[in-house]
Fold each of these.
Amino acid sequence: MSSNNAKALFACSRCFSRHPFEELSPGQQLCKECRGSFPVVKCTYCRSEFQQAIKGNTCTICKKCEQNVKAYGKPSACEYCNTIAAFIGSKCQRCTNSEKRYGPPVTCEQCKQKCAFDRQDEDKKVDGKLLCWLCTLSYKRALAKTKQSDADRRAHMKLSQERAAKHKEQKLKGHNKRPHRIDVTKLPPQPEPVETNGPTPAKITRMVGTHDPHDPNSSDHVVAVTQLKEKIALLQKQLSQKDSQLLTKDRQIHELKAKNFTAESELRNKMKSTEKDHDNKVNNMQQKISNLLKEVATLSKSKQRSDRLAATKNEAGTNSGSGTDSPVP
């Protein structure tokens, strides 16, 4: 093979085995075996998906967040998307960059939080909706699972149709393989042999009326074929019922997933509102405490002044009462 026709191979970034570029994963450039050996997990902080680098590793923090934790410490919750990824300030890096590029955030049409950024491009919207980053990931993941289940269902239906067609073809082949019986009415008449010692054995069998066990038109074969046809019809009916049950189960699963997603979004909103209420209450209590401390300080100062005045009065009274007159002789 010439060098022009040879297809270029690229090495996997983990096992260094060479594969075509289309078979490697985008980003980390991993082959199929490495992708299967190292699972894809979500980062605890930034919620982005990444592939673990070590088998059996229970750490679910991506490399970028791990470096940020070492440099800046544990992050706080972002004030926009509410993910625990704000290492510097009160916003995560994703929301900070999006705000610089697209302006202030707007309300997401799915989770109803003010964490989506309008890119002024209809192609960037998800199904015509303006969603935040987390809701976009959830929607794409659910859409991929739906496509996978639809593909499996179509493959199952195609396999059942192929089986039915194959069975029908085998049935037709079996029907065509029946032995061709000669029409005795079209045969030329043959002179019968002279019966010297009685009828021949063939004539005796015809007279007795015995049947050939290999005859496909015998009653036993007809009964067996009828039973098989009934069994095939029953199995096809059961197969169609199972397919309908699978469809209903898939529909129920999708409905439950949608309910779970809405419940999670409502719970997230409720938690955010309770946090705001708690912060407001804490601020009010702190203000009350500061006011009370000021009152205590003023009262203590006034008491000290009154004590000083009383002490000065007592000293003045004692000084005026001490006389210097000489005693009477």
Amino acid sequence: MANLFLRRALSYNQFRTLHKTAIKYNAPVPITFNMYKNQQKFREVQAEVLNTLMSSPRFEHQLIDVEHWMTKIQAYLLTVDDIVDASQTRRGKECWYLHSDVGLGAVNDCGLLLTCAVEVMDLYFGKEPIFSDLIKTTNRMLLQTSIGQYLDCSSGYSKEKNNLDKFTMELFNSIAYQKTGIYSFKFPMLLALTLVKDGKNKYSEEAQKIAWDLGRLLQFQNDYKDVFVDDMNTGKVGTDIQEGKLTWFAVTALQRCTEEQRSIFKENYGSDNPEQVKRIKQLFDELEMEKVYKESESELYDDLVRRIKALPTKGETQFYLEILEACCKHLY
């Protein structure tokens, strides 16, 4: 038993070293909102909700371990996202995989982040009856998020594929929920409720729908920042147009296009040629996409506030209202 604990402790220490290295080079840690100014706010919300929902005092001293475990899982997901999207920067610094001494070794680092996170959870909860539920909840989230990542990667437009028929709001909503909504909003709540007796039965159907719409909100906020906000403010160079991504802006623009404008979109979208990228941005301006976006964001925000306040439990209401504030602070 002592040897087993030692091995796990060593794994944990190695993981902490890897994690600190990743932070140093700005591999993503917790998910961020509103141009990454609310990182601490999001961590505080997660911790507060977990603390509120934990009914057993014996879990209180492990709260920080649960919170950190969640951020390690998110670090894994966002590091993978940077590799898959061929991103250049994350939070204003070069992505982890682009460092000359890392390269594709970042793929293995992702595996280390994920498996060591599970080891940490095993170390603290391995003997608890809820351990299998924690693992199942996490694995289900990873599966759904990976499906969302696949849909995001496989639905991009290029002239060669000529696949604008895939650019539907239905597919965008599915990607937003699978890739963003589940691990950002649904997963933290399910994880906390797993630590409470009969907790999963307290997660209402309406709360799940709210998680869906929060994922949609966050995704089209990300789409907006990719096109309209300078990378000095977002910390990430926008590449959605160049990669031909299925975004809220692309789908909505196509719904508003004339036949002539649609031809311009088909000719220029999905190219890394600066002039073609510029032409797409001009098209977005012609279609008043920034105005349409702000109206849609405000409308969704008002709807979410109304629905969140009507949730049956205080914990759900508190969690989602504070997350919504972090997402939409500029609307307050």
